[in-house]
Amino acid sequence: MKYYCLGIKGAGMSTLANILYDLGNEVIGYDDVVDYKFTEEGLKKRNIKIYHDSSCNLDSDTIVTYSVALSIDHKELQRVRNMGLKIVKYNELLGNITAMFESICISGTHGKTTTSSLITHILKSNVDVNYFIGDGRGHAKRENRTFVIESDEFNKHFLSYHPEYAVITNIELEHTEIYKNLDEIIKTFSEFANKTKNTIVAYGDNENIRKIDFTKKVLYYGFSDNNDIIAKNIVLNKEGSAFDLYIANSYKGHFEVPLYGKHMVLNTLASIGICILKGIDIDTIKEALRTFKNAERRFTEERVEETIIIDDYAHHPTEIEATLEAARQKYPDKEIIAVFKPNTYSRTQKFYRQFASALNRANKAYLTEIDCNREKASDYANVSSKVILDLLKNGEMIDENTVDLLLKHKNNVICFMSCASISHMKEKLIELLKK
Fold this sequence. Notes:
The chain contains 13 helices and 21 strands. The protein is α/β, with parallel strands linked by helices. It is globular, with a radius of gyration of 22 Å.
């Protein structure tokens, strides 16, 4: 079959394009962004052509799918609609693919990408698996039995999926442009989880998860004794994280993982739970964890002499707090500097106080203006980065033209955080530091 993916450089759409190609389909794409994005790596390996205008000729049997980041009146979406081509929603295509395999669907407000990466890494030490990871990495073979897929609650996409196993890493208020309140989010996660055919692995210390009336078997993980899978005697240091593992009150060994922060210990517990259910033995899991490398833009580090540059997808207050605490764990003797680009006006409006509280954990915080391609500033009067800035103890505005402000923090740790594109600023700082 032939597919035309609009917004192909988006993290989710690029991953879907990779998988469609691997399954034997013809794939081309369109994107407004001409500059290189890290999500292109898999597309380039597969020689998937990307157009930036309406010059591609499309056959009448081409199936079109599109990123939700594109407006409904986008010129290229209008063109294919006027051509009468079949248009299938992104999440529906993914849902069809999950039905082809024994799918492990990893959901949650935070931690999906890392947990998906961990599970994939451990399973691959035993057998080839298909995977969809939200940093642009996707891989599939029709003969593979298992499909690990990051399952996003945005627009209720994951309700289209067909999980054999499911993970819920946590539930918090998020995507306030989609969900009217926390109760609706919990209800949606409940609907997703109870579609699971086999077993659910869920974070038991999260009170919102405990509110779900599960109709399927659940294994809870966490730090409290009322869970099935528990981490005790946790050690967080410069080398990473370590803990003793207990399952059903039985000691299973001492585990180490080169990840930072208690939230990463939790992601590791979820991964261990799934891999045990899939028949992977404890010793194999333990060895695989030691060699794990995290996903793109998840605490990705680059060093320029004594300056540490961290690039992270953090865009929610909880995620920012976790990233800054992880940086402080690994680099306790350096100042921690935050550079944050808020994404969406609705999220900023709802969480500006929490954003400020999280950013105040840094020694200094810099803010850009809000970056949003799916909301209009005119619909959110008086909502700007200034509402966060006013609550910062040591804050300042920054943009691509004033990146040199960060040079005063040379030899420390500078954390670039956003789900929007912030790479230009990061690369410009690296260039300035090298000079």
